[in-house]
Amino acid sequence: MKTSLERTLQRHPYPYVTNTEIKVLLNSTVDSRYSKVKRLLEQGQLLHIRRGLYCLTERAGYTRKPHSFELADHIYGPSYISLESALSFHQLIPEAVYTTTSVTIKRSKEFHTPLGVFSYLRLPAIDFFTEVELVKENDYQFFIAKPWKAICDYVFCYKKDWHSLEPLSKSLRLDCDNLPILRDEDIQLFDDYYHHKRLSRFLKGIKTELSDR
Questions:
Q1: How far apart are CA 33 and CA 96, in angstroms?
Q2: d(CA 116, CA 70)
Q3: How far apart are alpha carbons 187 and 81 in whole angstroms?
Q4: How far apart are CA 83 and CA 87, in angstroms?
Q5: 146-174 burial, b if ≥16 CB within 10 A, otherwise e?
Q6: Beta-strand (E) ranges in 41-184?
Q7: At 22, is the pLDDT very low, low, confident or very high (cuts 50, 70, 90)?
Q8: Helix (H, G, I), strand (E, B) or coil at 130
Q9: Which domains are present in the chain?
Q10: Is the peptide bond before 167 cis (omega within 30 degrees of 0)?
Q11: 167-206, pLDDT tens digit by residue?
Q12: pLDDT, tens digit (0-9, with 9 covering 90-100), for 92-118
């Protein structure tokens, strides 16, 4: 016979649940909550992702599987999908990406979980969600960098001293022909956001190269 917590979790809108949500659902003592969560972990109904965050499993009767991009925001936020994961999502690089890569306003960090590796690199906090879109895919939703933002994040976070499109095609095997148009106002937007000499040189080089085409 299922407990009240088990029945409640089956109706949970997301395959992720936090200690705070469990506290609201149970409205019981700390020891009682700990005992119930420990039991569900031992039974395989909950999967421990990180401190205070769990994933509901099929053993709990939960059929909605977690999406790594959606889960990434629950693991460490505020954040959004970017870098290699975003470039792969936009079908700009051919390689499969096995680490879910995000950027955050917090310090850089990496989490090794039962559902994969999640990496986060730090970006400036002001106007953090510049050129980021909310994607709704089936029952999932997540924030992800648009193509040029993912590229600029890559250059900034990995400290690349690039001045043209050539390193994108050589180092990342990125299909530059499928990139969206980069307008002057986009370049100015990125230059204002990162406010960094390395990124400014990259954007200046890209602008010169595109204007010569």
A1: 40
A2: 13
A3: 21
A4: 6
A5: bbbbbbbbbbbbeebebbebeebeeebeb
A6: 46-50, 53-56, 79-81, 99-104, 109-113, 116-122, 132-137, 140-145
A7: confident
A8: coil
A9: 4-60 (1.10.10.10), 68-211 (no CATH)
A10: no
A11: 988 888 998 888 888 899 999 999 999 999 999 999 999 8
A12: 998 778 999 999 999 999 999 999 999
Residue type for position 55: C
pTM over cut 0.85:
yes
Tokens at residue 98, please?
Answer: 């096995």
Give which of 91, 90, 86 is closest to 101, Cα–Cα: 86
User: Strand 99-104's sheet: what is its strand order?
Assistant: 109-113, 116-122, 99-104, 79-81, 140-145, 132-137
